[in-house]
Amino acid sequence: MSPLGNDVLKAAAARLGDAGIENGQGDALALMTHAFGRDVSRLALREALAGALPPDVAARFEAAISARLIRQPVSQIIGRRAFWNREFIVTPDVLDPRPETETLIAEALELPFNRFLDLGTGSGAIAITLLDERAGATGVATDISPAALAVARRNAAAIGVADRLDLVQSDWCAGLTGTFDLILSNPPYIAAAEMPSLSPEVRDWEPHLALTPGGDGLDAYRAICASAPAHLAPDGWLMVEVGWQQGPAVAEIFGAAGLEDVATRPDLGNRDRVVRGRKPATHQP
To answer: The pTM is what?
Structure first.
């Protein structure tokens, strides 16, 4: 006789816990929902788990649990991640959109902008969210990775903003023309010495190119500040996500690039998360 779904779920949660995975019960439930199909309701899932699992569901669930046991992130297994009340497709080619990055969205939406540039877009979560929140705005999003741009293209189409977003393969601002009211980025900022201490879900499964520039972790900010100000309109803003200890150093890089009103903003945990600065308006004689 096939085991009941609830028993299979409980056993899987225990396996995850025994493997040292935090929130094994929550992960197991998310993966079970995925095994049934993303549109299954909570009531339907509860009723289904009271009986034996259909063989196809049981096979998908076991495959998902096996993937989680080797520390593949849940978002990659199920292929999506929630961000700013939207769902984004994620793959091993892009960073998993994180709640901390929503601070960058909140800060950007405080500013007036019609045309923006998102550097190192990855999944496209930042650019696509801004376009969906700001009707009439247009954006350009760059990434050095063709695979990441393919994911961003799928997300833009799924959320309905593809007609307002240009996706460009570029190393930061290389080859770009024109100016923008707002330039923003969540660049790689983890120092090389910090990489070994990351969780396996991040260190072993997310693209290293999007995690670390090597060295002290600040090279991406130096590169951005060397080129982005030339693409800012007068009174335009440059805004970046930073690691929680990097605010003062990145603010200094912004100031050295000639930006004014440089400020560091905290995330919901009251840790430095965003640095922003304004390009001075052209002085009239």
So the answer is: 0.92
